[in-house]
Amino acid sequence: MTNNTNSQDKETEDVVYGYSTDVSHLEEENKVLRDTIFRLREELDRMRRSPLLVCEVREIIDDNAMIRLPNGNLFFVNISSACEKLNPGDYVLAEQKHLSIIKKVSVAKQFNVERFVILKKPETAWKDIGGLDEQVKEIQEVIELPLKKPKLFEKVGIQPPKGILLHGPPGTGKTLLAKAVANSTNSTFIEIVGSELVQKFIGEGAKLVKEIFELAKEKAPSIIFIDELDALAAKRIEIGTSGEREVQRTFMQLLAEIDGFKHLGNVKVIGCTNRKDILDPAILRPGRLDRLIYTPLPNKSALKEIFNIHTKSMTLVKGVDVDKIINEMNDFSGAEVKAVCTEAGYFAIRASRTHVVLKDFLKAVEKVREKEEMEGQEYVDMFG
What angle do CA 170, 174, 179 make, to 5 degrees? Predict the structure, then answer.
């Protein structure tokens, strides 16, 4: 009897202990769930709040401020009493409904322009350029000499040009010339593309241009290379859309920055375009990009020079008739000559050879010409 009683008591204790353990475990789980729900509600509340605007303070007037919104509009607003002291040029957070300033934020004054330009020290040398001897000589006189020997110009009493315009058909070496002069003068090469500047930075184009020139001064000696300048500096027309107005603001800022350069400065501007005919005369007037350098399609001797540059590291079979290859490349640009050399190398690789023969080059010329004709036809079909 006693044994039965003890057994029942033990079973009862086990059941009670089991329930106690379960209750304790459930309470712990319940606490975790309550904390999770609380955090989720906080997160949901944060998501429901209206986002704050990042604005620039333009002027402080007593307890109020003139602020500039990202879209360029100006507003006269209140400053919160909890906000720290502000100065013109500071960036602040403003609530959207009344645009009242909530707090100052630590935003870099610059637009972090280095993220949007190609900033580098080029490795292209004058020896890597063929068939442009006259153009090289002129660039050396206009860009290289003032950067290397500014005192010479001071002694003579003349002011070198602030910049040049390289114009001519695509693929004729305009970018190579700009990189080579940057290399020869050990200058920072800041490369921007006019079309990207216009398309990507609506509302910020003029600001970005200003900061590009500030960056150039900080990294001086430097060369600002503006590719596809015609996208930014085309002849002005009746301004209609907001996009056209933005292009004009950006263009006017570019002119202002070029005009603002001190003479004999160690920052130079090189513009590049395939369409000089559509450029606004304002960019070409004296004191701006007034030195025009034309880069034509290479003649036969220039083609041969370019060909030799691009094949100097290739293994050509002895006795390759270079003149025959050059004759087949009539009207080719320097870029197309380089493409021919690359394609010829691929033909040799496909044939399991380490040396390139005449047949490879002739097939490569045919392939590049067909590609150019196809792209030309697509352009005609698209634009008429």
Answer: 140
